[in-house]
Specification:
The complex is a heterodimer of chains A (293) and B (617). By secondary structure, chain A is mainly α. Chain A has twelve helices and two strands, in the order ααααββαααααααα. Chain A has helices spanning 3-33, 40-57, 62-83, 93-115, 141-163, 165-175, 177-182, 187-212, 217-234, 239-259, 265-279, 288-292, and strands spanning 130-134, 137-140. Chain B is elongated and about 100 Å long. Chain B has helices at residues 2-15, 18-42, 45-70, 78-92, 101-119, 128-151, 174-196, 198-208, 210-215, 220-246, 256-269, 274-297, 302-329, 334-353, 360-368, 425-432, 459-464, 482-489, 519-532, 549-566, 577-583, 601-606; strands spanning 164-165, 168-169, 384-394, 400-410, 414-418, 442-449, 452-453, 467-470, 537-541, 569-574, 586-591, 594-599. By secondary structure, chain B is of the alpha/beta class. The chains are: A mainly alpha (293), B alpha/beta (617). At the A-B interface, α4, α6, α7, α9 and α11 of A face α6, α11, α13, α17 and β8 of B.
């Protein structure tokens, strides 16, 4: 196999799993609260900086840094809802969008105030030398770690939503919120949990991205936005769609990099977004009603 | 409070001085002209520079507000449209055929064209999907601009030729500010006229309800695209002015943060208001300068030191904080808020000048309305579980759905609330179960459970008190399986239900999604989930509506059995008199928000329920 194409395939799987991770968090939040979250890039930045600070400034181990980062982000996400969005329940969709835009700005400023404006390069905490090779397909330990962690989080969330009582309650809230509240489900609690999940997903993706390339706030914010085309491609309210859309978008981007060059990667994603919006706004797996709103 | 406030406003309209009313439309213009004249006369170079920036941003915000505030379409593409205007200006102004006003016009044309392209998805998209289309536009334009700069070797930015009118070079400071102020005035005049005539009305109709607008023959698509084109042209003009003003056009300037800034301006100033867009542009542009100045003048302390070293980052994110603050505490924005304050102040002054006529007569009339029917309730040895006293429910539209009713439900009783569509039955149930807590519905009177007033409780709190409502519609989660329903209500996954023969049909359907159940099965499922919550009072809105007679008989028998076996208390709302009379111990009949007949089923059956009860007609 052509080594360039082989590299693109590995890159697609890794980038696609990051999009999928962000996307699954987005979809869970959207279904439970109806919020189109533009702040996921900021949660990625936040996750990246917390992880960097723990592992490089405070000498935590890899696993401990990761776990603490996840716990802090879950708390930060839930706090976002309890402090801010809880007071906007029932507001118009575009008000919620603007609130998430404002939130994104504020989180970015908080990150800069705590850790300063500079990006960082993380140490090689996970080996990037090829671990497994299938012909020209070389997977490094970091590749496995990225894809594996993303898959692990997604599978845990998916099973949790299906088989735990809390997951069923959350789906009940997403299905018919008023009825859920009649059945003694506290919608505020469920919404706070959904925010926590979305923040954890974005934060973990931020950690993985920072570990692969660098801890760069601008790059992470951009990645958080490029997750939108991936989500729309799969369908804004479908978890399965978020996963498949993520991998598909990553494939298109990697193909564009080969054909046109690296600087086309992001803009191609937005061209895909426009095409999806024009041709099939509900995406591959989204439900029809959402578009009609 | 709202009613009295409205009364106060009415008072104000009637009494405000005629002279004041004649001047008021011009006060904005007067203030604006005076302010600009003052700045031109005595403003420092820096003040003039900032003023120019504010005016350009205000023009851009006005363009965006046409789209957001009037037509109700969110756009994240404002920076991209300004970039279109700026690049067109930078390129055209250096050509021999492109002296000053021409680039401005071409920029407007180009902006309108891009607006048309972005508006095209409006053929099938609305709301947030359209906003995402503008997000795509943003990145595509920024990419194109970046490529252009690289290809033409002007990576650090393109410089347009300095503008001149009739050979008179427009320079920084006074002449620029005067030119910009005049342009802003022209934009405001044009917009005011557009908003007052057909386009403004059409856009408002689309914003309020696209469906309703289409129903009365508004071509929503056409007017939406018109809004996109007009708005984009104005924003592109602002971009063109921005290029001239800053003398450097670079793709990094027009980033997403820049685009969001304009949305923030409109929110802060007040959506759908010309003065609001201008005020918002002023506040958002000035806020960083204000914060810097305040920081510079703070007495030395750790806080001021921290502020000082971080002022740059704080100023960068100030608009984010501002917009969150306004969304939480002043969602209507500065200008509508000030207007209300002004009207309130005027009304207070007017009211102080002449005391309002006494309202005692109205109160007397209410008290004199003495033809109330005698209130009777079910006599029971059991203690009263629910007592409703003088309950009233008034919707935001002013409709009074429930008008002072009295109910009593003793423990272990089955009480039915009968009446036709619109009699106020559902509103009564919703008031009791706390449905209206978060909505703008006024509930007055008392709702006593065990003597404790629960009026205004949230549904979750009411459910915790043991009040459970089975709603008329949306009674099951259509995407969840039957077994999942039982799990929501009960940790044991509904095992205790197996003892109730009523719920037996559900056991064969445990794995099917509730959306696929028949009407009767849905009713059984919603009853069973409610039952699993061990309610003290189970309220059922329309037990029998739309069901087959066989199913109705089974449900009615089931309700009686649950009561006899477990002593549970029921409050049923029914349109089907026969079903209710069969099972209830006591019946209230509602008509137009009041209880008109009450008694045992035998007593109520003697009234002919098919003819209108005319006691209050």
């Amino acid at each position: 196999m052509n080594p360039q194409i082989a590299q693109a395939i590995v890159g697609t799987l890794v980038l696609g799993s990051l999009y999928a991770l962000v996307g699954v968090g987005f979809v869970i939040l959207y279904r439970a609260t109806g919020v189109i979250n533009f702040a996921q890039g900021s949660y990625m930045v936040l996750g990246g900086y917390i992880f960097w600070s723990l592992i490089e400034q405070h000498g935590f181990s890899l696993v401990a840094s990761l776990l603490v980062t996840i716990v802090v982000l879950a708390a930060a996400g839930a706090a976002t809802y309890l402090v801010l969005l809880r007071r906007m329940v029932g507001a118009a969709e575009f008000v919620l969008v603007i609130a998430s835009l404002g939130l994104s700005v504020v989180i970015s400023v908080i990150v800069v105030l705590i850790w300063g404006p500079n990006g960082h390069t993380l140490r090689e905490n996970i080996p990037i030398t090829p671990l497994v090779s299938l012909g020209n397909l070389h997977f490094s330990g970091l590749d496995f770690f990225s894809i594996g962690l993303a898959l692990l989080i997604i599978v845990v969330l998916d099973l949790g939503m299906r088989y735990t009582r809390m997951g069923v309650r959350m789906r009940a809230v997403a299905d018919t919120p008023l009825l859920a509240s009649l059945l003694r489900i506290n919608i505020h609690t469920m919404s706070a949990i959904a925010w926590g999940i979305a923040a954890v997903c974005a934060g973990a993706a931020g950690v993985l991205y920072a570990q692969r390339t660098s801890l760069d706030p601008v790059g992470l914010q951009a990645l958080g936005l490029v997750a939108f085309p991936a989500i729309l491609l799969g369908g804004i309210d479908s978890i399965r769609g978020a996963m498949i859309g993520g991998v598909l978008l990553a494939a298109v981007q990697n193909a564009a990099i080969i054909v046109f060059g690296g600087e086309w990667s992001d803009v191609i994603a937005y061209v895909v977004l426009l095409l999806v919006l024009l041709v099939r706004p509900r995406g591959l797996f989204g439900s029809r009603e959402v578009v009609r709103l | 409070m709202t009613a009295s406030a409205r009364a106060v406003l009415g008072l104000e309209r009637a009494r405000s001085l005629p002279a004041l009313r004649r001047v008021r439309p011009y006060t904005g213009w007067l203030l604006g002209i005076l302010l600009v004249a003052f700045l031109v006369a005595v403003g420092s170079d820096f003040a003039l520079f900032v003023t120019g920036t504010v005016i350009i941003y205000a023009i851009s915000a006005l363009g965006l507000d046409l789209l957001m505030g009037r037509a109700g379409q969110v756009s994240i593409g404002n920076a991209a449209l300004m970039a279109v205007g700026a690049y067109v200006t930078a390129i055209v102004s250096t050509k021999p055929w492109g002296p000053f006003p021409i680039p401005l016009l071409i920029a407007a044309l180009a902006g309108g064209l891009v607006g048309l392209v972005v508006g095209l998805p409006a053929l099938r998209l609305r709301g947030i999907y359209l906003a995402l289309a503008t997000l795509a536009l943003h990145f595509i334009v920024q990419f194109g601009a970046d490529r252009y700069q690289q290809k033409s070797g002007q990576i650090s930015g393109i410089t347009p030729d300095a503008p001149s009118i009739f050979g008179f070079q427009i320079q920084y400071g006074k002449s620029w500010v005067i030119l910009l102020a005049v342009l802003l005035g022209v934009v405001v005049l044009v917009l005011r006229n557009v908003f007052r005539h057909q386009p403004g009305r059409m856009w408002m109709a689309i914003r309020e309800s696209e469906l309703a607008a289409a129903a009365i023959g508004v071509n929503a698509t056409r007017w939406k695209i018109a809004a996109f084109v007009t708005s984009s042209a104005i924003v592109a003009i602002a971009g063109s002015l921005f290029a001239y003003y800053t003398q450097s056009v670079s793709s990094e300037t027009f980033n997403l943060d820049f685009a969001i800034t304009f949305i923030v301006m409109i929110i802060i100033g007040g959506v759908g208001s010309i003065a609001g867009a201008i005020a918002g542009a002023t506040i958002v542009t000035m806020a960083p300068y204000a914060l810097t100045t305040i920081t510079d003048h703070l007495p030395s302390s750790p806080l001021s030191g921290w502020l000082h070293s971080n002022i740059f980052y704080l100023n960068n994110g100030l608009y984010g904080l501002l917009v969150l603050f306004f969304l939480l505490y002043q969602p209507e924005g500065v200008v509508p808020g000030l207007r209300r304050l002004g009207r309130w102040a005027v009304a207070r002054v007017a009211a102080a000048a002449a005391p309002p006529p006494a309202v005692a007569s109205a109160t007397a009339a209410v008290e004199g309305d003495a033809d109330e029917p005698e209130v009777r309730h079910l006599q029971s040895a059991a203690r009263t579980l629910l007592r409703v006293e003088n309950l009233g429910v008034t919707y935001r539209t002013g409709a009074r759905a429930v008008d002072g009713i009295e109910l009593e439900v003793p423990e272990g009783a089955i009480v039915a609330l009968l009446g036709r569509n619109g009699a106020g039955k559902t509103s009564t149930l919703r008031a009791i179960s706390g449905f209206f807590g978060s909505e703008r519905v006024r509930v007055d009177g008392r709702i006593l459970v065990d003597g404790r007033d629960v009026a205004g409780f949230s549904p979750v709190r009411a459910a915790k008190m043991g009040l459970v409502l089975v709603p008329e519609r949306d009674k099951v989660f259509s995407g969840l399986r039957v077994s999942e329903h039982l799990r929501i209500a009960d940790r044991e996954r509904g095992e205790s239900l197996r003892e109730e023969p009523l719920f037996a049909p559900l056991w064969t359907r445990l794995d099917s999604p509730a959306g696929l159940l028949s009407g009767g099965e849905r009713q059984l499922l919603s009853l069973s989930t409610a039952w699993l919550l061990r309610p003290r009072l189970l309220m059922i809105d329309e037990l029998s509506l739309g069901l087959a007679p066989v199913m109705i008989r089974r449900l009615v028998a089931g309700v009686r059995e649950l009561r006899d076996k477990h002593g549970m208390t029921f409050l049923l709302v029914e349109q089907n008199a026969a079903a209710a009379l069969e099972v209830a111990d006591w019946v209230y009949v509602m008509e137009a928000g009041r209880v008109v007949v009450q008694g045992t089923p035998a007593e109520v059956a003697r009234h002919n329920l098919l003819t209108p009860v005319s006691a209050h007609a």
